[in-house]
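Sample A.
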Amino acid sequence: MAADSAHVIVAGGGPVGLLAALGLARCGIRVTVVERETELNDSPRAAVYHWCVVEVLDALGVREDAEAEGVIVRGNTFHRPSTGESVQISQRALEGVVPFPYNLNLGQDRLGRICLEHLERLPNATVLRGTGVSEVRQDADTVTVVLDDGSELTGDWLVGADGGRSTVRKALGLDFPGMTWGDRFVATNIRFDFEAYGYGRANMVMDEELGCIVALLDREGLWRVTFAESDDLPESGLPERIDAFLQRFLPGDEKRYELVQYSPHHMHQRAAERFRVGRVLLAGDAAHLTNPTGAMGLTTGVFDVELLVDRLAAVIAGDASPDALDDYAERRRAAFLENASPTAIRFKHLVYDGVKADIDEAFELYLRVEADPVASREFFLGVESLREPEFRSAS
């Protein structure tokens, strides 16, 4: 099948769906994105892109625009308020080893807007907003989605990237085994001068009571602070509890801050039993969910896109058999279960569960890594274990 005669439907207009659509459209494939929400979700969500994710953004043509709006991060800082310890591990050791030796912080809604702008420039890409997928049917040659308004759309393949509550996944009858944390994660966007108190642009705060993630989001001083609380607490009192946490956590004598946005999230460790059923492929949160600590969720989703676009484009062009899509499904499920999820769980325990012995051990490690350029390089290269070997830029 010629690329320009194929049609791929992408369910979901978040970053993973839009990046998948962009990658396929850049291969000459006709793409239609279907998104239930009428506007991009601008609530506090994923915002950190590891250096190797930046490589994928570059390959898809959106890196320069993303960097123009985001914040370059050249190291990770770890804090321990109970002892006053701080360790900063620089990414300088990656220079000359990888093309982009830095991370990027950028709200996922802003990345989504950039992807939309790029898609709008392509004549073979269409984005339908305000209607979602309600049903999925397929046969040996085509897949059809029934939209919320009752209309139907038929294509050759369907990519389900419609989030953790994926209608596509449910329509396929797939189980979503795993577990749900007893914590509620609270992501806040605030204005506060963290840099005046020795904070870097990306920080993990490890503490028995004040564990959180702190990251600079833009060039106007907007910061993300994500903490955890018991899921048993009512959401109705959340604004007051946010203030109580920030009053305890923020450094300095004056605790003046501006709360711009906040968003509570239930967090999970789950993976669909399969990532492919016939002509339907799952990617991103529709395929797997993790707690956000360490930015493993969106990172894994972007690497799903990288392999999915490669394999699906090859199948459509006749350069690979459909078995290549089983390869995609099996490898990306394994990458999540064997690497992404365990890494996120480990970071979650260090930041939010406050076990003193574990924090002691972690800080001993970070101090050794900080002092050793080789160890620093390996520390940052480790995230590429979530990526497929043929795309890795470093060994």
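Sample B.
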Amino acid sequence: GSLSTGRTSVLAGFFVGRYNTGMKWIALFLGLALQLPAAEPLPPEKVNTLIEALGRLDPALVNGNPALKQRLDQVLDAVRGEPRLVGLVKKFKVPDREADLLEVAAGHPNDPAGVEALGMVLGGDGLKSVNALLTGNDAQQAAAVARALGNSNNQKVLSLLTPLVIHPKVHANVRKEALKGLANFETGARQILAWAKEGKLPQNAKFTASLALSTVRWPDIKAESAKVFPRPPGANAKPLPPVVELVKRKGNVANGAKVFQRETAACARCHKVGPIGQEVGPALTEIGDKLPKEELYEAIIDPSAGISFGYEAWLVTMKDGNAAFGIIQSETDSELEIKGPTGAVTRHAKADIKSRQQQPLSLMPPGLHLTIKEEELVDLIEYLASLKKKP
């Protein structure tokens, strides 16, 4: 009897403690939240405390209480676009947040939260929203979503990525991410191989496809890919080793810096590293933080496979028959500024323009790797990979 009574007292004390702890966090959450106007954004210093309090509250309690639910929505608005939004939406099963989840997926395509956010959208009614982003006018956002799709390990993405590869008007970077994503699935990898055999792959997709298929985990696809995609030639007309082998080599950073500045390689004619070079194409001062070695090789061997956003080449034809070719540096209601391959900027009145067309090829000419030896190419990549943000 005394033992039973003691055990009951301990259990009662445990549940009372849990209840009191729960009430403490409810009181903290409500007390803090109710101090803040509902119509105004939450101060950043309060958001972390509110998220911690929400993490200790039961979802049924929050969803059943209008005041708590209103504050939850306010917290979600405060962390829109951030990975921590995903856990809150998942825990409290918040509806109608597909757009916010897609924003996280697009902004953090390689982050587990970004991948999970996309999986939550695909698991609901968000397929139309995803497809709208992939085919919309914002190519940078479309490429980020395509990358997140490829990382998702969800078979549903195949039907979304497949049309992007062979569509003639897709941005090169969107096509590139779609190809890499498809190669993560056996069905997708076999589809890429089939396109290559049928001659249906766009020219600016072939090197990306060969690179993606050279690292797949299915031996027969990898072997067949090596036959279908010939290796690009080097400076002496001898085929370069596969990129998967080149990335394993250790180059000489100092010599790579000399190659970068060499006139025959022409890298510094269009790219800046710190104060060195000209800014026609993207600055490369921190390129080692942005691209792995595989993609650095790809950028040099086949520059049209992926073109940096904002550096697409355009052909602008005038009514008088003249034309300008280069990057659109700025645009107003009445004028275009175009930076040509030499870095010279010309201005053109829109009233004088007959047409403008984005070009499928990069402003960076192909074949630069043919002007240097294989060892120098490895050194150049080692140098570029070393260019990172200083601590």
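B remarks: The mean pLDDT is 83. DSSP finds 20 helices and seven strands in the chain.
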